[in-house]
Amino acid sequence: MRYLEIAGRRPLCGELTIQGSKNAALPVLTACLLGDGPCIIDNCPQIQDVEDTLAILRMLGCKTERTGHTVSVDPSGMEKTAIFGPQAERIRSSVLFLGALLGRMGEAALPYPGGCAIGSRPIDYHLRALEKLGVRFSKSSPSGASGGASFRQTEGSDGEDGSGLGSDGIYASATRLRGAGIRLPQPSVGATENTILAAVLADGETVIENAALEPEIDELCRFLNLRGAKIRRERGRRIRIFGKQTLGPVRYRLDADRIVAGSYLLAGAACGGSIHFRNLPAEQLSALLAVLSRMGVQVAEDGRMCAGERPLAVENIATAPYPGFPTDLQSPLMAALGLARGESRIWERMFENRFRTAACLRKMGADITIEGSCARIKGTATLRGGAEVRAPDLRGGAALVTAALAASGRSRIEGYEYIARGYEDICRDFQSLGAEIRLTEDRDEKVW
Ligand code: EPZ
Predict the structure, then answer these.
(1) Hey, how many other C-beta atoms are within 10 angstroms of the C-beta on 146?
(2) Atom number in ligand 1 closest to CA 186
(3) Ligand 1 site: residues with CB under 6 angstroms?
(4) Would you state the pLDDT for residue 387?
(5) Rounded to two decimals, what is the model's pTM?
(6) pLDDT of 420-446, one tens digit each?
(7) Confidence (pLDDT) at 330
(8) Of all protein residues, whose CA lies closest to atom 26 belonging to ligand 1?
């Protein structure tokens, strides 16, 4: 078991280059299934969720290669349509293989997706949208006799119906995908991406109303348009997709990860110091920069930030769909406000179970009260190290690192496997800013 050891209470000073975007890499890699020819993706972060996605692509018969931060995916050899196993069950974005497999093969079988336990995270918006495009779902692998798809499973499938999935899998098929008008009940990132993946090769035009506006979706559309797709964002939250016959190969470079950048900006606000971000995606972080300004932290156009010893409290801040304050930065913000002068309130409007980090922060001396969807935080001058805490999820892990870096004394943070899902090398990044942080292996851990 790997854990982090941190000696806190030092300002963060130095330069940093932000890794490529996890939440853009995952849909873009999945979209490599569509069309012909190998695609090459540059600035692809070396993180567990990307490795899991590449493993799923190989499971389907694609060829993948990685050289440093450049990944290539060649789908020409793929013929499978069922994915199973720990990778697909571990990550939320495995659900995007629904749209991509239906778009390329007309059928798909996969487990319900995983991802951080931050709420119930249903996929009803995905399924309803795909049904509008002509997709049929069944609770188990339809047998050939029933006219359903006989799913072309991958080797080693172990499900009772041979597809490697139990009855809790998703079985989908479509004779032909046809364009449709779709209105999403909420601007869901994943449902928007899944609909785009299924519609881009459908017959005719698809219009998505109340679509998500996250930059990751713009990256997916840019990637597909460079391959010959025709996808347009229109006024408000509307996306129009003109179905195409096929897509060509392309080489594409991912933007910097706005959530990793935001996590590190908030760590700087908590610890004080001065950081120069060489590639800060500032235009994607306007809601956070406005909050940092209210906390007394200035971030210049050229990516330089300066923070005093203690940030100011922020009276009220609510998470919201982009371009509102990102829910993924709610836990790191909570950690930073734990050290602020005054009382702050954070309202979590996106997920119903995303305050689990508060309990760990309280063990470090933070004064946090959860009242329904509101976290009330009374800032304290210092947090105390010495607590052994475990990351409850990916962004909660980043928040605990922030708190430990600002706390007095030494801290141990377990659950590094969560952090590694989205942060390429959090030790390397903070060491470059002068932090005393290291990754340690528990060798004598009994594995039963
Ligand atoms: C994406 O998750 C991100 N994950 C999440 O980041 C991020 O927190 C989230 O968008 C919101 O910005 C990836 O991109 C891989 P949603 P996603 O569909 O697509 C409800 C991280 O830390 N909903 O926009 O799963 C849902 O329960 C991760 O990098 C339905 O009810 O989020 C939530 O309340 C964590 N039915 C709201 O919509 C559905 O079918 C927004 O979820 C789909 C969603």
Answers:
(1) 9
(2) 38
(3) 23, 26, 92-93, 116, 119, 121-126, 186, 188-191, 212, 327-328, 350-351, 394-395, 422
(4) 82
(5) 0.94
(6) 999 999 999 999 999 999 999 887 655
(7) 98
(8) 121
Cis upstream peptide for 323 (omega within 30°): yes
Measured over the CA atoms of residue 187, residue 189, residue 190 and residue 193, the dihedral's sign is: positive
Q: Strand runs (DSSP E) across 301-444, as ranges?
A: 304-307, 317-318, 343-347, 367-371, 374-378, 388-390, 410-414, 436-441
Residues 6+ away with beta carbon under 8 Å from 122: none
- Torsion angles phi and psi, residue 412, rounded to 5: -125, 125
Of all protein residues, the one whose alpha carbon is nearest to atom 5 of ligand 1 is 328
Active site (catalytic) residues: 116
All residues at 6 or more sequence positions from 372 whose CB lies less than 8 Å from its CB, including other chains: none
Tokens encoding 434: 């002068």
DSSP 138: E
Residue in the block written with tokens 């025709």: 230
3-state secondary structure at position 298:
strand
Amino acid identity, residue 345? R
Ligand 1 atom with the smallest distance to the CA of 93 is 15
What is the pLDDT, as a whole number, of residue 149? 37
Atom number in ligand 1 closest to CA 321:
12
